[in-house]
Structure formats: C-alpha cells, structure tokens
Amino acid sequence: MGLELDGAVDSKELMNAIWGAILKLYGEYGASLAGISLIECDAAKKLAVLRTSNASINMVRTALASMTKIGDKSAAVHVLTVSGTIKALRKKSKL
Amino acid sequence: MRRTYADLHLCTNFKDYQKVSRIMGKASKLGYRLIGITFPPNSSNEEIQKIRSICAEAKIDLVSRVDLKPRRSKELIYDLRRLRRKFEIIGVSCESKDVARQAAKDRRVDLLNFSTFDFRRRFFDRAEAELASNSLASLEVDMKFLLTLEGVARIRLLSALRRETAIAREFHVPIIISSGVSEDMLMRKPRELAALASLFGLDEVVAVETVSANPLKIVKRNREKLGPKFVAPGIRVIREGKDC
Predict the structure, then answer these.
(1) Which residues in chain A are closer than 8 Å to B146, comparing Cβ atoms?
(2) What confidence score (pLDDT) does residue B220 get?
(3) What's the pLDDT tens digit per position in B76-130?
C-alpha cells in the first residue's frame, strides 16, 4: 500500500485506521472474515504491506479506499500491488 | 490493450493554475488519462485552452464540462440551447422533478446528477430511467460523499444508490462513477472507485466499466458531434468541394 499523508506514519495508528474503516463498512462480522495483519510499515517511504485472506480482498480494498484519516491526519491509502506471497510481492513492487 | 480510465467530475478552481497542475499530475499518477473539469457557463474558450495545455503537460486529456442547476425545465432548455456546442459534457443537477424529467428525455444532456443530502429530491425512479434509456443521458454517481459522509447519512446514501443503480441497470441506463472532489487528498485510483461501488451492489466488471468504457463512450460521441464533419447522427461530411 502507498500511504499519502502529511507527517510521519505510525504503524499502530495505521492499523487502528484500517480496522476502523472495515468495522464502519462491514461491522464486526465482516472484520472477523478479513483476517488482516500488518507485515511491514516503512515510515520513510510511506509504504506498507498488509496481509489479508484471499476471499476478503475486495472488502479490504474497499475499506482502504474509504479511509480519509490516519490518527487525526488527513490521509489516503492506495493499493499498489497485490500478490499471493511476500516474495512475489517484493519482486513485483521492487520493495 | 490497456484500459483508459476517466474521471468526468473534478471540481477544482480552474483559475488557480498551480492547483490544477498539481491535481492533474496526481490524476496522471493515479492512472487517469481523461479528466473532466467543471467550468462555469460563462468561461471563455481561452481559459479552457489554457487548462487544456496544463493537462497536456501531465499527459491528461481534458474534457470541458458544465454543470447546470436549472429551477424549471424551460430554464434547462434555454441553457442547453446556449451551451451545448460550447462544452463537451453537460451535467444536470436535478433539483426538481420537472427538471429531472426534461433532462432525462433531452438528448443534449449527458449526465444526470441528484441531490446527496435531500433524499426526497432524488428523482431517479423507474419513470426517469425509462426516459433516460430512450435518450443519451447517464446516471452519474459522485463518490466524494461516500468518503466524506459518516453514520446515518452514509447509510441512507448507500441505500439510495443501491436502489438507483439497480433501476439504471434494469433499464440499461449507463452509470458513470466520478470522484466529484476538489481536494487532491480525496482523489482515488479508478480501481479504488470501482471497489467503493461494490458498497451499492455493482459487481467488479460493471464497476470498472463505469470508470472507463462508459465515460469514454460519452466523450467520443460528443467530440464527434462537436467536430466540423458532423451533420446529424449517422451522417457526416466525407468530402467537400466542386467534384462532390
């Protein structure tokens, strides 16, 4: 994911914002299906790697698109690439 | 072949050239190739050309657009007569049922837009869709409000959009998804707009068409009509001169 915001990215705030967006749109049941976890967050490059189940990828993509804030800062999150394995992801995105 | 993505509704202040340049740079980075900017009805051709050249620098094809907000259908007809040949896209914000019906049946109208906040003034019902399906109007959905609204307001908006898009699909009225934003932080990639459309029941394939093929079709049709060779639908000048 590419993160667009003024200031530094805090991984805890980022995860709270992602959970918040999923909860708002799909509720606790939907959030429980997503199975998300943050693999990596590069504050300098403003890039992050998020893991989710294949079945709920569209749900997570929608929730990420609906995010307008991380913490109290205006933000946008863009999905840069999707991959089945982290190895392939690094190859694709040249991380 | 790579898909061309379009956003027909950016509401930037077109006199702030720096902001326009920044927004176009970002649009290009997000993957758009065609952007519609709303101009006031009295804007000059020079102003539009200036913005067009800024867009060309960012490899963006600019589509000039005007949004009409008439109070009566006669006002709409007058505005259409005056502005149709000046702008490539005409959107009508339907504030009354009278205007909504006239806009839906008038072949000079490209996009129908409805109030986000007053749900009694969303007139896109089956009768409206039937009129629109016989003309060339498309239903436009601005995604800005899905990003900015929260709670009950967003729930009600999603419910209205779900109903309207289902009617539009039933009557084969094209759906156009636009951003409708004025700030660059609210701009989203075309695929992300399509993902947001799943919230009101559009499947992925249809949603992607609403940000690519559907807007491109309108622009292509209108550019052909505004071109010097167009005479009437299906008739165009092929050759001119004494030997014809």
Answers:
(1) 66
(2) 93
(3) 999 999 999 999 999 999 989 999 999 999 999 999 999 888 888 889 999 999 9
pTM of the model: 0.90
DSSP A32-60: HHH--EEEEEETTTTEEEEE--GGGHHHH
- Find chain A residues with C-beta within 8 A of B195's C-beta: 58, 61-62, 65
Domain extent at residue B215 = 5-236
Domain with residue B130: its CATH number is 3.20.20.140
In angstroms, the CA B6 to CA A94 distance is 28
Strand pairing of B32-38 and A47-51? unpaired
Nearest CB among A62, A68, A79 relative to B199 is that of: A62
**Is pLDDT at B13 greater than 90 in this prediction?**
no
Residue B243 covered by a domain? no
Contact B189 A78 (CB under 8 A): yes
A8 pLDDT above the threshold of 90: no
Cα(B191)–Cα(B7) distance, integer angstroms: 12
Q: Indicate the domain borders of chain A.
A: 2-93
**Separation CA A49–CA A15 (nearest Å):** 11
Shortest CA gap A12–chain B (Å): 21
Residue B130 is assigned to a structural domain of this protein: yes
In whole angstroms, what separates CA B22 from the centre of its chain? 21
pLDDT in tens, B190-225: 999 999 999 999 999 999 999 999 999 999 999 999
* Model ipTM value: 0.89
Shortest alpha-carbon distance between residue A31 and chain B (Å): 15
How many structural domains comprise chain B? 1
B241 in any annotated domain: no
Q: What is the pLDDT of residue B183?
A: 87
Which of A5, A61, A72, A81 is most worth mutating to test chain B (most B CB atoms within 10 A of its CB)? A61
Q: How far is B184 from chain A (nearest CA, A)?
A: 10
A2-93, which class in CATH?
alpha beta
